[in-house]
Amino acid sequence: MISYSEIVFRLVLASILGGLIGLEREANNRPAGFRTHILVTIGSTLIMLISMYGFKGLGVNGSGGEPARLAAQVVSGIGFLGAGTILRQGNAIHGLTTAASLWVCGCIGLAIGNGYYLGGLVTAGIVLFTLVSLGLFEKIIFKNKYKTIHVICCERAGLIGEIGTLLGKYKVIIKHIKMSPFDEDRDKVLHIDITVKVPKYFSPEELFGGISKINGIRSVKWEEQWENNEE
Predict the structure, then answer these.
(1) What pTM, to 2 d.p., does this model score?
(2) MgtC/SapB/SrpB/YhiD N-terminal domain location, by residue (predicted)?
(3) Domain tally for the chain?
(4) Of 89, 120, 140, which residue constitutes the final position of a domain?
(5) CA distance 195 to 178
(6) Fewer beta carbons within 10 angstroms: which end of the chain, N or C?
């Protein structure tokens, strides 16, 4: 049996690693964020600890049974939680990356609970690198395939739905939506970044004209236009 301090250390380390991954998801306005990733990672760690040390004195010759049996259920069980983050809009699937991050957090938790610190720490580092750095790399590679629409608007119920309906009318597929306050002094004004995949032939002028007519919209621009204005 390991010491109490070692148990606490493993649980705390697991929560830190899960929290770091969750912060990245939270920053990108994903359905499972900071707290969810912490809970998944620390829960997996606890199950691993229980598997290894919670049944000592039981089983054949007091061995406690096979530690891998209980821990193995985490790997399959996380799949049900991850499924709740996956959404389908038309032909586009959203939430797969978040579901995968939840699953790998479960694996990291099992590694930390087992005392396999090197594997857990290296895996967490690779996951963070993949989510942060490779996300930027992906945007560079697919820059011509995806466009970002910047919308300044007044917050109100149903606004995102109306924008989405209009984009669907022009067969524009939404890949990602990020919302943030446009002006700290005015909580009701939002800056919405909508990453979209545009069809080969369509009229952006007509699309932007339609978006501009939606109640509450103040301005709408492509990413290039937005960057030029910022300069």
Answers:
(1) 0.58
(2) 11-138
(3) 2
(4) 140
(5) 9
(6) C
